[in-house]
Write a structure and sequence with these properties.
The chain is built from eleven helices and 15 strands. Helix 5 runs parallel beside helix 6. The two termini are 37 Å apart. Bound molecules: nicotinamide-adenine-dinucleotide.
Length: 322
């Protein structure tokens, strides 16, 4: 019988990359996704369509999720649940809080409820730097107070809290993995994806949200998955909260805009906005303290600018083929 891992939001950008890596480890990923952002074609592009199980469902629908878990169990023993399902559009969640309630928090509530009933006790959660909020120049360690400024960050933090509470009852192991900005393909959203698409529509001009000074850490998806598998492989019981990211001050939006322009449409004029942040709910600048990840023994990753440069050519090629 196969060894199964469940991935919620599994047809999305990070989910399909994680699925490919789990397959390489001899596991059978079973993906749960409503395909609002994810695409089955991403599985074709990676050549793994036949090697995954897939259930199209809304993660807020408890009965559907319970049924999918029961079916996955027929395929093999379930090892871990990787909970990646979330709303990825931060601005949409600021405009309408129901977006993050329904797509980010309720799915966590449902996953925990179904896992408890099914007797499953290992969970890895895709959390985010957005749980911290805006702390200016303070390096964000895991101990910095969490004061989210977006509903996305708030519902991720609420999810973390529910997972923490579940560790007191039925979860024996939970990792809360606070991702930085993750880049690579198949891109579904994000600053590089937006810039490449804008330049395809108007090759002579790139309009940038914000004044270009926004600066954040970026990590390539391949290295993100190295890091989260490393943390997940640790045998320590209980709740582990870890920042995942490069040990640098990040890449600026100006750097990214110029690099995308140079790659896609070298003559284009870049027009910046007036505000230091891109949109309401955007944390304009942050950098991570990644000492804990290093202390756990995970090695160095490429810097933010190298990750961005690599992802620009990958995403431009993805969108040119689309
Ligand atoms: N990409 C990043 O930079 C980044 C940064 C921090 C955290 N994260 C987290 O990592 C996880 C994966 O992100 P991603 O970049 O792959 O995003 P993504 O949007 O590509 O993937 C999310 C997936 O969830 C699915 N989904 C959303 N709502 C759903 C619902 N109600 N029911 C079923 N499926 C639903 C979407 O269809 C999509 O396939 C998310 O939890 C995200 O918050 C990502």
């Amino acid at each position: 019988m196969a060894s199964v891992d469940i991935i919620t939001g599994g047809a999305g950008f990070i989910g399909v990359n994680l699925a490919a890596r789990l397959i390489a480890r001899g596991r059978r990923p079973v993906l749960l996704d409503n395909l609002s952002g994810g695409r089955l074609e991403f599985l074709d592009a990676l050549g793994i369509r036949e090697q995954v199980g897939f259930f199209k469902l809304d993660m807020a629908d408890r009965d559907a999720v319970a049924e999918a878990f029961a079916s996955a169990r027929v395929e093999g023993e379930i090892g871990a649940v990787w909970h990646l399902c979330a709303n990825s559009d931060i601005a949409a969640g600021v405009a309408d809080p129901a977006v993050d309630l329904n797509n980010t928090f309720l799915p966590t509530y449902v996953v925990l409820s179904v896992m408890a009933e099914a007797g499953l006790d290992v969970l890895h959660f895709a959390s985010t730097s957005a749980v911290y909020g805006d702390h200016g120049d303070v390096a964000l360690s895991e101990d910095v107070p969490t004061r989210p400024i977006s509903n996305y960050g708030a519902m991720k933090l609420a999810s973390e809290a529910a997972i923490s509470a579940a560790c007191e009852s039925f979860l024996t192991r939970a990792s809360v993995l606070r991702f930085p900005n993750v880049v690579g393909t198949p891109a579904t959203h994000g600053v590089i994806y937006d810039f490449v698409r804008k330049l395809a529509a108007t090759p002579e001009r790139l309009e940038v949200l914000g004044d270009g000074t926004q600066q954040k850490p970026y990590l390539h998806v391949d290295e993100l998955i190295d890091a989260i598998l490393f943390v997940a492989d640790r045998a320590d019981p209980g709740l582990e909260i870890v920042n995942i990211g490069p040990p640098d001050a990040g890449a600026s939006v100006r750097f990214i805009a110029e690099a995308v322009r140079d790659h896609v449409s070298p003559g284009a004029e870049i027009v910046y906005g007036a505000e230091p942040r891109g949109w309401l709910g955007d944390v304009p600048k942050f950098h991570y303290a990644t000492d804990k990840l290093a202390r756990l023994g995970f090695g160095a990753v490429a810097g933010s600018e190298a990750a961005v440069a690599r992802a620009i050519s990958e995403i431009a090629a993805q969108l040119a083929d689309a």
